[in-house]
Amino acid sequence: MATDVHRPVTTPKSPSTETRSAVRVEGLTRSFDGRAVIDGLDLDVKPGEFVALLGRSGCGKSTLLRILAGLDRDIEGTVLVPRRKAVAFQAPRLMPWKRVWRNVLLGLPGKPDRARAERALEEVGLDHRTHAWPKTLSGGEAQRASLARALVREPDLLLLDEPFGALDALTRIKAQRLVDELWQRRGCAVLLVTHDVEEAVLLADRVLVMDEGVIAYETEIDLERPRGISDPRFGELRAELLQRLGVDAPETSHPAAA
Ligand SMILES: Nc1ncnc2c1ncn2[C@@H]1O[C@H](COP(=O)(O)OP(=O)(O)OP(=O)(O)O)[C@@H](O)[C@H]1O
Ligand SMILES: [Mg+2]
């Protein structure tokens, strides 16, 4: 049963006694058939912070993201998130019977005009496909349309669940750069679920490892941007995270999956 529902984060009365958060989760528990997949989890994300979330398959990452997105409210504990949030999943989930720009505006309140969709599509480099049908888009284009749909909401919190998982290596690198640029420009908080340790170290301010229903480990990524995988510190962080995930780090720097 939910003991609390999603509420907008309010500015604390006394900033000196409480730090403002984009996400505040306390004692979150979510069970399926009597099994607690999330089990007393605490998490804070600062406004504008880029956090990556790693963890073995089935540990509850998507469950956590769905809760933060407000898609699952059958919870115990406290979850505070900004009113303006948006989510993009591994599969772009575009409606095939709606043109790209209509997909971007889908679910927005009122009657948003096309120019709004066009601006978001321009931001992700997809303005030339505004009128296209989703089935005519490449995988990378569809993912960018999905990102535009998230951005058009002008979120204070952007939730990304393995958004690059289905992309080929080159398209994936481009999509990672795009997310990096958008985050720097927009300044929203990002929570990125990924299986790719290098992706997490490349993009995030902080990387979390989820295990046994809680955040079992976290590390700040103390690398200057733009980051390169050839940096020795990058290798150290990657090895440390792989070890936490129970994977032996390879000697050379190949893309590493958790
Ligand atoms: N609606 C549901 N009903 C029952 N069990 C569920 C439901 N949703 C998730 N689970 C279970 O909760 C656990 C966590 O699932 P979740 O999708 O959050 O994992 P994940 O960490 O995102 O995994 P992956 O990395 O494979 O995407 C799994 O054991 C899954 O079977
Ligand atoms: Mg998942």
UniProtKB/TrEMBL annotation:
Polar residues bias: start-end ranges: 11-20
InterPro entries named among the record's database cross-references: AAA+_ATPase (IPR003593), ABC_transporter-like_ATP-bd (IPR003439), ABC_transporter-like_CS (IPR017871), ABC_transporter_ATP-bind (IPR050166), P-loop_NTPase (IPR027417)
Alphabetical list of SUPFAM superfamilies matching this protein: P-loop containing nucleoside triphosphate hydrolases
Segment forming the signal sequence: none
Pfam families: ABC_tran (PF00005)
Keywords of this entry: ATP-binding, Cell membrane, Membrane, Nucleotide-binding, Translocase, Transport
A GO term, aspect molecular function: ATP binding
Source species, domain of life: Bacteria
Residue segments, region Disordered: 1-22
Residue span, ABC transporter domain: 23-237
Name this protein carries in UniProt: ABC transporter ATP-binding protein
PANTHER family hit by this protein: ALIPHATIC SULFONATES IMPORT ATP-BINDING PROTEIN SSUB, TAURINE IMPORT ATP-BINDING PROTEIN-RELATED
